[in-house]
Specification:
The protein is of the alpha+beta class and about 290 residues long. The strands form two sheets. The protein has a six-stranded antiparallel sheet.
Length: about 290
């Protein structure tokens, strides 16, 4: 399938795992500059509660810059109650701005996802979400509920929600049900289940596994609540957004190596993601 100087014997699929990835290997891994003790503490919170709040990842000035860059891109409100009739969303974000890149590949986030998902995991969805005053609470849901795999299950996806504005108890901060990531098939939220509101300052991020029940809160305040969300999934799953179709190759060349492989310019061994029998990064090499 690729140019090889040798012709190794193949007795099982495992013998093929380095074939298409020999030239373009998996990226990332390690602690990414994050203190190992911090990574362990974050993982312990995730295992216990299904989520962890990471504070002080961005400064106030960075959040102001993000708000200034993203606000002009906001358009109409959602098409249904789930998207939010008083909620604005930006799709195909990478094609419109580089401002959110720093959230997608933030070291503190990727240090955790490296341990939760298989190498060469993918970006499944990236949106900017602006909840306007008067918006109702969103339907509680798990982000990986559309994958037909019985619960409880190993991690299929991980999500992040970044506070660009402060998340407060009354402006639409994300509502979470701690421990719901361990619920079995068929169990849904009731009034008896404890809920936590992800109150956090701008520049913080709440990271949670795909099986955790959660939803956007009601915005009872007089101001909008701006946030960005990036979701990641196992490299053998279909992503929510078809980034290889929606993201131009010029943009793919601009983003970081981590984001590039998360957009699908990578291989899940032995050959999931190939293009014409070759590694997809060769499409960029041909330019």
């Amino acid at each position: 399938m690729t140019e090889q100087s040798t012709n190794p014997e193949v007795h099982s699929l495992e013998d093929l795992t380095k074939d298409l990835a020999r030239t373009h290997r998996a990226t990332g891994g390690g602690d990414r500059g994050v203190e190992p003790a911090q990574v362990r503490a974050d993982l312990a919170a995730l295992e216990r509660d299904g989520y962890v709040i990471l504070t002080d990842l961005l400064g106030r000035e960075e959040c102001d810059e993000l708000r200034a860059e993203l606000t002009p891109l906001l358009g109409r409100t959602g098409r249904n109650a789930f998207e939010g009739h008083r909620t604005q969303r930006i799709y195909s974000v990478l094609n419109k701005t580089r401002a959110v890149d720093r959230l997608v590949d933030h070291p503190r986030v990727l240090a955790l996802i490296d341990r939760l998902l298989l190498p060469n995991y993918l970006l499944s969805q990236l949106q900017v979400i602006n909840i306007l005053p008067g918006e109702d609470a969103q339907l509680l849901h798990p982000d990986d509920g559309f994958y037909p795999v019985p619960r409880p299950r190993p991690e299929l996806s991980v999500a992040t929600i970044w506070a660009i504005d402060d998340f407060t108890a009354d402006n639409g901060a994300t509502v979470l049900i701690p421990g719901s990531h361990r619920w079995p098939n068929g169990r849904t939220p009731t009034d008896a289940d404890s809920r936590v509101t992800a109150v956090m300052p701008a520049g913080s991020c709440v990271l949670f596994v795909g099986t955790l029940w959660h939803g956007g809160g009601a915005n009872l305040s007089a101001a909008p609540r701006l946030a960005a969300t990036a979701q990641y999934c196992q490299p053998w799953l279909r992503t929510q957004e078809a980034f290889t179709l929606s993201t131009s190759q010029d943009v793919v060349r601009e983003v970081s190596e981590d984001i590039r492989r998360m957009l699908g310019y990578s291989i899940h061994p032995p050959f999931v993601g190939m293009v014409d029998g070759m590694h997809p990064k060769r499409l960029l090499d041909r330019h």
